[in-house]
UniProtKB/TrEMBL annotation:
Originating organism: Ventosimonas gracilis
Oligomer and partners: Homodimer.
Localization of this protein: Cytoplasm
Entry's Gene Ontology BP terms: protein folding
Protein known as: Protein GrpE
Annotated family: Belongs to the GrpE family.
Length: 176
């Protein structure tokens, strides 16, 4: 009997802790894991959004690079257009001596302007239009009773647009 009592005592000592203590530990671990999962999901969403924004910006940069790659080259060609136009202005239309040269200059100018147009480079010739500081550069102002104030009287140099964006402003005389 004494052995049975010792046996009972030793069995009581080896009894595992109460089940409530284990449940509490498991619940705390589950809550901690849920918090970690929520944080990881939030980080994954942020990373995906950042990646999408980066991809969109890269696509826009490539599109702009394609669209405006000709900007510097086109700006250099505009000096050639200006020279041909000035040459045509200075030659006498009636003179037989300059007739062949004038025709050649006109054809060259037309070919150059057609080439620029094919590459979405459009002239801005605002003669008689209201002054627009976004597309025109006022070189001087003049009094004029014939037109309203802020109207372009003369164009010294045409402006140009490349794909709708200003490549060079038109240099103009504006009425007061």
């Amino acid at each position: 009997m004494a052995d049975e009592q010792n046996l009972n005592v030793s069995q009581e000592d080896s009894v595992p802790p109460a089940p409530e203590a284990e449940v509490i530990d498991w619940q705390a671990q589950a809550e901690a894991l849920q918090e970690q999962l929520a944080a990881a999901q939030d980080q994954a969403l942020r990373t995906a959004a950042d990646l999408q924004n980066l991809r969109r910006r890269a696509e826009q940069d490539v599109e702009k690079a394609h669209k405006f790659a000709l900007e510097r080259f086109a700006g250099d060609l505009l000096a050639v257009v200006d020279s041909l136009e000035r040459g045509l202005e200075l030659t006498d239309i009636e003179s037989e001596a300059y007739k062949a040269m004038r025709e050649g200059m006109e054809l060259t100018l037309k070919l150059l302007l057609d080439t620029l147009k094919r590459h979405q480079i459009e002239p801005v010739d605002p003669h008689g239009a209201p002054f627009d500081p976004q597309q025109h550069q006022a070189m001087t102002t003049e009094e004029s009773a014939e037109v309203e104030p802020n109207t372009v009287l003369r164009v010294f140099q045409k402006g140009y647009l490349l794909n709708g964006r200003l490549l060079r402003p038109a240099m103009v005389v504006v009425s007061k």
